[in-house]
Amino acid sequence: MRRTGRIIRKRRSPDNHVTTPRSRPAVRAAAALAAGALALSLTACGGGDDGDDDKGGGTGGTENTVTLPELDGASLEVAAVWTGAEQANFKKVLAEFEKRTGAKVTFVPAQDPIINFLGSKIAGGAPPDVAMLPQPGAVRQAVEKNWAKPLGAKARAELAENYSPGWQDIGTVDGKQYGVYYKAANKSLIWYNAQVFENAGASEPKTWDELLTAAQTVYDSGVTPFSVGGAEGWTLTDWFENVYLSQAGPEKYDQLARHEIKWTDPSVTEALATLAEIWGKKDYVAGGASGALQTDFPASVTQTFTGGDQPKAGMVYEGDFVQVNIGETEAEVGTDAKVFPFPAVGDAPPVVSGGDAAVILEDSEAAQALVTFLASPDAARIHAGLGGYLSPNRNVPASAYPNDVQRKMAKALVDAGDDFRFDMSDQAPQAFGGTPGKGEWKALQDFLKNPRDIAGTQARLEADAAAAYGN
């Protein structure tokens, strides 16, 4: 299950890698999203409506805002790496499309890396009609392999109506629109067990030093501070990106994302040393390094919110989608499970985002209709109401989200407009930033196991990056 920034508009470099303009003021990006993120402190937030419906995810709209064709007898396959509740919720969106068109839609569970999965399906002559691709690099790769088909006029019209130019741009390759970013994420949040914090006398931190203080306070109360889903390397890249963005700053972040500076750069040394203050601290990670490396992402969440005030850990880092997994426990978001923005390591707190784009592989009226539906507020409204989901669609009403927490997160995302930074590993070639057991995922898993080996980790990261980027 690949999860999907700090928000900034992307362009393409001559070598086809995703790039970001150097001239865009980083402070504006930070202010737009950080201001929204800072409103996410859940001390006073529960599941009720705060009466602010028109100020959240968009401008509202009627129940059905898009006209869909009659597709009786048509069948479609949609592939995604989503599992568990995330998959179940998406299937409810697909069920509404079936109801409105008469088409039959089958969800096809995919494995990471999804490009490899799709390659095998295409080689076997059975590609899915639509795939949800979790990286801009994967969208470009699908285009370069002649797998992806351009969006039709109706899908493009929905995008123009509902999405900011920046979100349209990251689904564009060589001037043609291929992707609809149906799902987005704010990946700069730390969730905590409220009873653990209350018992320990810990408070929500705003800086890295305050986070270390809170962790020690939780530890002194008898609870391990952090749960880390190290079995899935993407969670570790997200940890690194938040520390690096805040500490090194957006210019360096952009340069490292493009491999214009090496992973042996002193700024990377500093970020890894900072991570080691948690990953390398004895008894700060549930199960130790070996236990964390056997803990997948869902378990890293559920073990933080089960066991009452004696869970396996007091805090877990990851994005807004953590709510889906909290829903599998008895904890309630806003009361038992609360959240604070990832603390500032440097001058400003980081906000990192990502997303999943719907891309057509088998062009047909039905496939075009489905992607048009996914670009509309209608589809996003259904998914939003189920929790654990954010849409970059600016015309999804705030009232669609089930609680004040998600309304604030959606507002922060939409209010950022075109000022956003995307997940760094998602911008990298998939061989480096998106493959289990390889590249950045594997190097950071090894670093979690041995946080003293900063120089060796940097050397491995640089060797793998150089091979993947071809420089």
TrEMBL record:
It holds the Pfam family SBP_bac_1. Belongs to the bacterial solute-binding protein 1 family. Keywords: Transport. Residues 1-25 are annotated as: Disordered. This is ABC transporter substrate-binding protein. It comes from Streptomyces virens. Residues 1-12 have a biased composition (Basic residues).
